[in-house]
Amino acid sequence: MNWIVQTFASSVGKKTMMAVTGLGFCLFLAAHLAGNLSLYVGRQTFNAYAEHLHSLEPLVKVMEAGLLFFAAVHVITGLVLFYQNFTARPSRYAVTRSAGGRSVGSRTMPYTGILLLGFVVYHLLNFHFVDKTGTTIYDIVAAAFTDPVTVGLYVCAMIVAAFHVSHGFWSAFQTLGANHPKYMPLIQGAGLVFSLLVGLGFGLLPVYLLAVS
Amino acid sequence: MTKSINLTLKVWRQPGSQSSGRLETYEARDISTDMSFLEMLDVINEQLTLEGAEPIAFDHDCREGICGTCGAVVNGRPHGPEKGTTLCQLHMRHFSDGDTIVIEPWRARAFAVIKDLAVDSSALDRLIQAGGYISASTGGAPDGNAILVPQETAELAMDAAACIGCGACVAACPNASAMLFVGAKVSHLALLPQGKPEAARRVAQMVREMDRLGFGNCTNERECEAECPKEINITNIARLNREFLKARFFSSEK
Amino acid sequence: MQLDGKVPGGSVTQKWDRHRFELKLVNPANKRKFDVIVVGTGLAGGTASASLAELGYNVKTFCIQDSPRRAHSIAAQGGINAAKNYTNEGDSIWRLFYDTVKGGDFRAREANVYRLAQISNNIIDQCVALGVPFARDYGGLLANRSFGGSQVSRTFYARGQTGQQLLLGAYSAMMRQVAAGKVQIFPRREMLELVVVNGQARGIVVRNLVTGELERHLAHAVVLCTGGYGNVYFLSTNAMASNVSATFKCYRRGAFFANPCFTQIHPTCVPVHGTYQSKLTLMSESLRNDGRVWVPGSAGDNRPPGQISEAERDYYLEKKYPSFGNLVPRDVASRNAKEQCDQGKGVGDTGLAVYLDFADAIKRDGRDLITRKYGNLFQMYEKITGEDPYETPMMIYPAVHYTMGGLWVDYNLMSTIDGLFVLGEANFSDHGANRLGASALMQGLADGFFVIPYTIGGYIAGSQFAEITTDHPAFKDAAAETGERIQKLLSVGGRRTVDDFHRQLGLIMWDHCGMARNNDSLGKARSMIQELREEFWENVLVPGQERDFNQSLERAGRVADYMEFAELMIVDALDRQESCGGHFNEAYQTGENEAKRDDEHFSHVSAWEYTGVGIEPNFHREPLVFENVELATRSYK
Q1: CB neighbours of B25 closer than 8 A, spacing ≥ 6?
Q2: Do B122-250 and B4-115 have the same topology in CATH?
Q3: Among A20, A81, A95, the residue to mutate for chain B (most B Cβ within 10 A)
Q4: Which terminal residue of chain A, N or C, has fewer Cβ atoms less than 10 Å from its own Cβ?
């Protein structure tokens, strides 16, 4: 077997792929969140931001392709890991109790991951693959968030995302071997702050839009 | 203070690796709190023997927490509820009168149950065979002081080398992964100057063997670190990851 | 019969070099034509397997545990001696040799001890090369600490887990050879019989402890590294599986057993605290570097230690032995603890304990340094007793720890059966009547790394081997006998458990053949053992099946052997009408209650030849000649 295939097929290799793609998504989330914050300013600013993005069209396309590739890698590898980890213990314990290592985030990683996958598809259908003729993106978003059910759904999804990130962020560094007694506490702190930012930043937006509608 | 307690035990009984098993209930009466957990099992076994039943099979040897032979999952916790303690060093003073204790063997695809609580953890030996050594044949070693090893490095290596190979990390891991075991050995040897020449080959082969043996993948749940009776740190897993990536992408090791 | 230790001629400093030159060599290409069986995977067995495989022999290695890394060498805490003189205190090979001979109370073979001291330095080098993380100074040089019976710091250590680290080094070297296909490893096997063909050890019969099947294995030589027999006392610091069976079976096949009464009672163990107790735990002797041993000055004083003022304490070791103080050899420290307790000055619930106090050391060096040195030992003590040794003194009491006796071997480590080599604690050779701390690891590694690779070659090159298979009648007979014995154990169907018998035997041995012995009580013990043995074969209850994972059956076989072996210990103790090292006969003591040797009559190794169960064994002696160390009364004052 080729050394590259061998590397990525190994357990550590698979984890590396998860870490790299996961950190990629973290970067994307940060950028996405920064852009979305313009929604709080108002219609014009947000639409201007969208305009600006469109003016960078080729770059955006490349980024989209990259994201799609990352998503494919993250999802497929994640599913493989999930399956392998499940079969690594064919007979389960009658009693299981945590010694305090696991967190809610780490414990639910595969499940929050699957939920997020569903959400991303839904989100793209909602806002990406929609007919934008004769309207602006702000109007589409604002209209969507007049429905309390949609708002509720988005808020829930963002809570799920926050948990996923809360484990994923520091975990990615650990997987890439970046664990240093001096810096690991900082990384873990940053991960927690980032997951809160993601949860609150994205999660409050629909609520805000519902409130102002 | 020494006192006596009564307990209800639910113990996994399985006649052989091919048979199915189940939890059996036993009453443990007048157990001194000064007993170790294994001594408590000895008492039960003496009773079972006299009653004409088969005693509970469990592995144990040194009974001072260093050989790594013993181990069972006690109420969902490998080696029981005390931090940094092997089953043989767990004393009954940590239990209360009337407690119910569920005792199960290590469970992982890579560890088959031999009988009752005894499991076959020879997969850990195979991991060491895959590269957990320094190739220094007898006779050619230079003076022990010829290569300086900074105290800090020696201490870090010792932290990792303290692993007793009991398998609790695998038993505790939600994914039955052996990364802490492998990480500890890779770290111990990669940290020392003596182990550096083979570091790339070692980590590549040990990871390959780990996957081949059917252990799960590490998802950084940190249960291993929390349950390790020698409190081996997951920084060793990070070092393993680092060594692996270094070996894979920056060495000529195939 | 007088035994010949085959010690080479010349001055003691040149014997080993000369012998290595004189030993025949096996051509490198021919080594692969020879198979060697190694039984046991402790320091001796692990390194023997590795070093023989490195030379090219095909090695089959057997261990009783589930993995070779579990052997009880792993539990050695304190350290390993070597004559490196890194500390510039004036240590030398000669001094280590001298200390070891003197520490052994002049009952060891000089040439063997000198060789051990010579090799000690290579061991450290080899272990460092294998990645053993010995303690280091800030600058990166190896650190040393001091140990009992020596006035120089020559002990190398890895925290309180030196044995573990050395064993893992040996294990890793062996695993490398497993991966290379030169060592085949057979875990969970118990050696139950030695197979002798034409006077040569040619194989073993083992029981597969998982399936219960008897397996036969053939080789050109058998290397026994199966440790000591301390568990004859039931309570000891040995691991639960440690046993005498392998060496005892060889004794029954004709190998002589030497000095079986030489047992070491280690002074610093956690005291016994209940009848259910399954084993005793050692607290490393290194603790005596900083801990001070004391008892209340007056008998019957049962106030808590904190309430006993300095003036009311009796630091008996410091008082009695001003130059060695708390660091006197093990036998001396143990006997003194017993003496204090016999006087009613013992502490704790049972009155069978003395204090080991770290208050002064903590005051002097700070808690941090003490934690760095002994942290894991303190933790272990707290786990067992529930008391914090940082706050209150430890309670310690002597416990059976090591057995200096073992199968008789010559300078080549070969027993009286050709081709049966015995290494490490299983042989009798290097420690005389008392082993110094940090010397067991040294001996195990010396034998395995640097002695057996040469001497086994000399044997193989100089021998003719019959072409046989495991179908040879000798194999069939040995397997059949083993099977019958197992059936016999299972068919008794009595009313007492194996452990019950073992406990009773242990108590007899501890009371009558323990720290202090006398002829009357030894005589009594002998008949008690005979009676108990008879009862055992009529009333033992062994549950389960033969062809199964049956731990009761395993133990039953071992206890059955102890029942016979214990009597041999008594025979030897009765024969040796002197006191020396670990063998203290109350009739032979100085005015100050120290062991009084009788060099005129007992400067020899007693080797016993099996003649039958309950029948007086034949006595053979190997005279001990001291040409280099002057016979003197040991003094640690």
Answers
A1: B8, B9, B10, B11
A2: no
A3: A95
A4: N
- Cβ of C278 within 8 Å of Cβ of B42? The answer is yes
Contact C130 B61 (CB under 8 A): no
pLDDT digits (tens, 9 = 90+) for C600-629: 999 999 999 999 998 999 999 999 999 999
The distance of A176 to chain B (nearest Cα, Å) reads: 6
- CB-based contact B63 C240, cutoff 8 Å: yes
Looking at per-residue pLDDT, the higher value among C20 and C636 belongs to C20
What share of chain C has pLDDT > 70, as a percent? 100
| Residue at A36 is within a domain | yes
Backbone phi, then psi, for C185, in 5-degree steps?
A: -105, 135
Per DSSP, C222 falls in state: E
Whether residue C330 lies in the annotated active site: yes
CB pairs under 8 A between B and C: 221
- What CATH number does the domain containing A75 carry? 1.20.1300.10
Least confidently predicted of A39-53, A100-114, A186-200 = A39-53
Number of domains in chain A: 1
User: Which residues in chain B are closer than 8 Å to A107, comparing Cβ atoms?
Assistant: 174, 221
Residue B97 and residue B253: Cα distance in Å, rounded? 58
B4-115 is classed CATH 3.90.1530.10: no
- Residue ranges of domains in chain C, CATH in brackets: 268-399 (3.90.700.10), 473-606 (1.20.58.100)
Q: Tell me if C130 and B162 make a contact (CB, 8 A cut-off).
A: no
Q: What is the DSSP string of A111-173?
A: HHHHHHHHHHHHHIIIIISS--TTS-HHHHHHHHTTSHHHHHHHHHHHHHHHHHHHHHHHHHH
A11/B177 CB distance under 8 A: yes
Residue range C55-66, pLDDT digits in tens: 999 999 999 999
Percent of residues, chain A, with pLDDT higher than 70: 100
Residue A97 domain flag = no
ipTM value greater than 0.90: yes
Question: What residues in B contact A180, CB-CB < 8 Å?
Answer: 235
Q: Are C3 and C622 in contact (CB under 8 A)?
A: yes
> Does residue A32 lie within any of the structural domains?
yes
B239 by DSSP, 3-state: which? helix
Q: Which of residues 115 through 174 in chain B touch A, CB cutoff 8 A?
A: 172, 174
C79: phi then psi, degrees, rounded to nearest 5: 165, -170
Measured between beta carbons, the chain B residues lying within 8 angstroms of C124 are: 144
Nearest CA in chain B to A107: B221
Closest CA of chain A from B109, distance in Å: 5
Looking at residue B100, the DSSP 8-state letter turns out to be E
Q: Does domain B122-250 have CATH number 3.90.850.10?
A: no
How close, in Å, is residue A154 to chain B by CA atoms? 27
For C531-553, the pLDDT digits (tens) are: 999 999 999 999 999 999 999 99
Of B109, B240, B245, the CB nearest to A89: B109
DSSP structure string for C143-187:
P-B--TT-SS--EE-STT-HHHHHHHHHHHHHHHHHHTTSEEEE-
Q: Which domain holds residue A77?
A: 3-90+102-212
